[in-house]
Amino acid sequence: MSSIFEGLQFRAGDTFVHRLDPRAKFILSISLLVVATIYMQLLPLAILLCLQVPLVVAAKVTRRWMKTLRGALVLAALVFVINILVKYVTGDYTLLPVDLATAFSISFRLVVLFTSFSVFFLTTTPDELGLTLTSWRVPYDFTFAFVTAVRFVPVLAAELQTIMDAQRSRGLELDKGNFLQRIRNFVPVLVPLIVNIFRRSIELAEAMEVKAFGASKKRTSLRQLKMRRVDFLFLLLTLIFLAAGIYARFYIPIPAIIPSE
Amino acid sequence: MISVEDVTYIYPSGVEALSHVSIEIRPGEFVALMGENGAGKTTLVKHINGLLKPKEGRVIVDGVDTRKTSVAALSRRVGFVFQNPDNQFFAETVKDEIGFALKNFGFDEATVERRVQWAVRFMALDDYVSQSPFLLSGGEKKRLALASVLSWNPEVLILDEPTIGQDYLQKEKLMQLILQLNTQGRTVIIATHDVEFVAECVPRVVLMSRGRIVDDGKADGVLSDAETLQRCSVIPPQITQLMHRLSDPRLPRNVLSVGEAARLISRAARRD
Questions:
Q1: DSSP string covering A213-241, please?
Q2: Yes or no: is domain B1-77+154-230 CATH 2.40.50.320?
Q3: What residue spans define the domains of chain A?
């Protein structure tokens, strides 16, 4: 599970993809998401995944992108199994090849959905994220809350590890016992984590007040987002891709790799 | 007996926190690990109770390879007190908090009760037995964290940054406690930046820097080698600095105790 989060964590880099305007990258992610949602066939979904590869390589985040992929695969496998089971139980305890193909496509789509935002998060600083939202006139209170949430994910992950270490040192065995017991095993880990989150949010609120949060209505920012020519070009390509994706969905028959309905 | 043999550890992020570290700690020893932030002190002690397993080399605790046993089994022998008590409290009362580990280790109810009573009294927490751990002060929290580990009487006690955020009186009590536990035959290992604290305890000092052991020996020797200390971002104890500054050929430099220094200086002064 933690590997999915790792795939969403920004780390500084200076490549063509990092320097692209975050808004353009965000629109690309949304486009990927939309196109992935309207297709059920394997071929277009595979194309969507392959389309991301040059960007990932250009941004030099291949290793972490693969981590997201691997994390998403676990989840996809789970979805696959549940799908098959439900089909099996509701369909008079028989399985058709079509059912397998459908379940496979659904899980594969999940992988594509996950990775579509991976490139965005891997190459966009929390700062730029905030600027993006602000430039779309999202109230700053919301922007701040969102950026803070993103910003604290790695902090919480580290803290979770420390707490687990501390409790394991007191003889707690997380994977001992039956299903219910295992859930109960997490109480000694979750209570300190939640208490710490509350404590931290109070401290953060105080720190913000000290720095006069919300004192002026109109906020200015040191860095301003500015679309350059290359950003517009990238955006244009993205929109062409989106239009083509939607057009193909309705007017071009897709050859099936695995037989489906 | 703890023996760390040529251990290398690399965090998933790629940081090499320990590189080819070897050290032996005999039963009943008192060892202080010192060095800059990120020197590898905490990483090293986490290997001793199996929280981390070496990528290369091996760690043997009482004849058992840490890779072949569980953290729970190792913790029974090696008690680990973490730096921040807030990262472990979850029970409703101080009493339950102390009893948690005892129950995990499978002690029967009567024994749990008896040991909790003992730990409460030993750490002077009598007044707080049925209070919430979250309502305690910083010093009391530290004592509770200690009590919850001492309750199962581990042979080895590891303290990670025990003096951080503690006032002078708490530190003094902590020192007495550590020395007492050590005198009773327990192995005590502390990872700390607090050079004055170490100077007063006079343990064996292991100096680390960038994942390697730089120096290892008696406190007076290691803590008076200003040059090596500086490489590890450790400042010598004030009294040692004073002896250096006096640069009197009749005065030794490797003095850690204020009393001892006072005696030596006044003797030298009388002779003038």
A1: TT-SSS---SS-----HHHHHHHHHHHHH
A2: no
A3: 1-124+227-261, 126-225
Task: Express each pLDDT in A103-143 by its tens digit.
Answer: 888 899 888 888 888 888 888 888 888 888 888 888 888 88
Q: How many CB atoms lie within 10 A of CB B251?
A: 16
- The residue extents of the domains of chain B are 1-77+154-230, 91-153, 237-272
pTM across the whole model: 0.79
Which chain B residues contact residue A160 at CB under 8 A? none
Q: What are phi and psi of A44, to 5 degrees?
A: -65, -35
Residue A161 CA to its chain's centroid (Å): 21
Question: Identity (one letter) of the amino acid at B257?
Answer: S
Is B176's Cβ below 8 Å from some Cβ in A? no
Q: How many helices (H) and strands (E) does chain B have?
A: 11, 10
| Exposure b/e, B178-207, CB count within 10 A at least 16 = b | bbebbeeebbbbbbbbbbebbbbbbbbbbb
- What residues have CB less than 8 Å from B98, skipping those under 6 apart? B115, B116, B119, B120, B144, B147, B148, B151
What is the residue type of B140?
Answer: E
> What 3-state DSSP class applies to B69?
coil
ipTM of the complex: 0.90
Q: What 3-state class would DSSP assign to B163?
A: coil
Interface contact flag, A173 B82, Cβ < 8 Å: no
Strands B212-218 and B78-81: unpaired
Map tokens 């004030």 to a residue.
B238
* Cβ contact A168–B75 (<8 Å): yes
Under a CB-based contact definition with an 8 Å cutoff, are residues B47 and B53 in contact? yes
